[in-house]
Design brief:
Rossmann fold; 7 helices; five-stranded parallel β-sheet; about 180 residues; alpha/beta
Length: about 180
């Protein structure tokens, strides 16, 4: 019997409870699931690829058959490189379906042997997107029920630094990770 390896590609900026729901459920369906973070230079992400990878690795540490990786370029090319046979995609609404169907058909045209599996998130996450989480966090709203605790903490840290900059305060060097040298007298 063939083992089925799937990839779950996305930007994950930031990872949400909806992503975690699909990862958990996907890990029960596929023999191996690779959460694949797309490096997209066209976007201005809130979190670096390295930060998103660390968060996702922490979130998926309890799943023996889940790994986290990064890629750029076409998803089908990445799938071939890691020998995946399936692309896992989440669909929340009709608008997602239209976009995802178009992508799945293009992927099939580019790589006929690669299948796309659509999964709906749990009902309680059906409205949830990374974009909405970022907006709620930026406006000071509660995000605790939207993202894992680790991600909520990272978002609070990001928003605190942004708030300090906006108010003309000087963040601590550890917050901005900018190190300055003391001038010699």
């Amino acid at each position: 019997m063939k083992r089925i390896k799937a990839i779950y590609p996305g930007s994950f900026d930031p990872p949400t409870n909806g992503h975690l729901d699909l990862i958990e459920r996907g890990s029960k369906i596929f023999d191996e699931l690779v959460v694949a973070i797309l490096r997209n230079p066209e976007k201005d992400p809130l979190f670096s690829v390295a930060d998103r990878r660390k968060m996702l690795e922490a979130m998926t540490a309890g799943f023996d058959n889940v790994s986290v990786d990064t890629f750029d370029g076409l998803t089908v090319d990445y799938a071939l490189r890691v020998e995946a046979r399936v692309i896992l995609r989440g669909i929340r609404a009709i608008s997602d379906y239209e976009y995802e169907l178009q992508m799945a058909l293009m992927n099939r045209k580019l790589q006929p042997g690669l299948e796309t599996v659509f999964m709906m998130p749990a009902e309680k996450y059906s409205y949830l997107s990374s974009r909405l989480v970022r907006e709620v966090a930026q406006l000071g709203g509660s995000i605790e029920c939207l993202v894992p605790d680790l991600v909520a903490q990272k978002l609070r840290e990001k928003m605190d630094v942004a708030h300090k900059f906006a108010n003309g305060e000087q963040p601590l060097p550890s917050e901005t990770k900018i190190r300055t040298r003391k001038k010699r007298s």
